[in-house]
Design brief:
This protein is an alpha+beta fold and 306 residues long. Helices cover 45% and strands 21% of the residues. The strands form four sheets. The chain has a three-stranded antiparallel beta sheet, with helices on one face. The chain has a three-stranded antiparallel beta sheet with strand order 6-7-10. The C terminus is likely disordered.
């Protein structure tokens, strides 16, 4: 199939590989981006373990936690331009929708649209907002956790993090725990882990990583002829590194590189006189996986002037 220059540029942006390598990989993969990234990784050309989404859509991400009701929510609401995210009416709609999710626990976005927001539904409120702002606005996704949580919003709405914990002895009510929770949420924002711990990594993910490592070794003259037992030993080491980079509790704590997140958690728990377990987390990045509308802003302004 024909591979467009746009596709090659996108793959290059996601992998930092050369143009020709990207074109060859896309051709070999029949235009499939995931397969092309896998091919580049197998050849040792792409080192990124995670697929980079097309980060482009506008709007905002928001996260909030209610300590009294012990419910946390992270939500993404998209719009056409970044100006909307600064609009007070838009921000109020996002925060009000977050409260609706906390209180009414809709199953999904479709159910959310039918929830009551004051005297009207969320859908009606959204349509009225669109009429006022004159842009298409869409509630894209949300996650709701019950229990002890920490919520963090970064960059005025570019990232929203929600982390869910299990605690004992009421330590979640202490100020020190609030500071710890924010640290963990900021860790998720900065280090972008894929999983909480090794046990939460699906077996098929580990198997695929091992498969890619074997292909890489076979293509490397330094390792291609090593005995199978040696290769397996090397893979064990590489998998440990994979866990350390991708599992939250195994990552180096961003505020203190001498500690892992697990060690920092254990230290805080001991100091507060209880136990802390990180159960799960949600990390939303504004526009992740969406493709931005390709507008020529200069041309648009010029046409308005004319």
């Amino acid at each position: 199939m024909a591979i467009s220059a746009k596709d090659v540029m996108e793959l290059r942006k996601q992998t930092d590989c050369g143009m020709m390598e990207c074109k060859k990989a896309l051709t070999e993969a029949d235009g499939n981006f995931e397969k092309a990234i896998e091919i580049l990784r197998e050849r040792g050309l792409a080192t990124a373990a995670k697929k980079a989404g097309r980060i482009a859509a506008e709007g905002m991400v928001y996260a909030d936690y209610c300590p009294e009701c012990k419910v946390g929510v992270v939500i993404e609401v998209n719009a056409e331009t970044d100006f909307v995210a600064k609009n007070d009416k838009f921000v109020k709609f996002v925060k009000d929708t977050t409260k609706v999710i906390m209180e009414q626990n809709p199953a999904d976005v479709e159910a959310l649209m039918n929830c009551k927001m004051g005297d009207e539904t969320v859908d009606q409120a959204l349509k009225e907002l669109i009429l006022v702002i004159k842009e298409n606005i869409k509630v894209r996704r949300f996650v709701r956790y019950e229990g002890v949580c920490s919520a963090y919003v970064h960059g005025g709405g570019t990232h929203g993090i929600l982390v869910n914990f299990e605690t004992t002895n009421g330590i979640e009510a202490k100020d020190e725990f609030a500071a710890y929770g924010k640290d963990i949420a900021m860790q998720v924002a900065a280090a972008n882990p894929g999983y909480v711990d090794e046990a939460s990594v699906p077996a098929e993910v580990v198997a695929k990583e091992k498969e890619i490592m074997l292909v890489q070794m076979a293509g490397d003259p330094k390792t291609a002829n090593k005995p199978e037992a040696v290769k397996q030993k090397m893979i064990e080491g590489k998998i440990k590194k994979f866990f350390k980079e991708n599992c939250l509790v195994d990552q180096e704590f961003v505020k203190d590189g001498d500690l892992t997140v697990a060690q920092y958690t254990a230290k805080v728990a001991k100091d507060l006189g209880g136990d802390i377990k990180i159960v799960k987390f949600a990390r939303f990045q504004k526009g992740e996986g969406l493709e931005k509308r390709a507008d020529d802003f200069a041309a648009e302004v010029a046409s308005m002037v004319k």
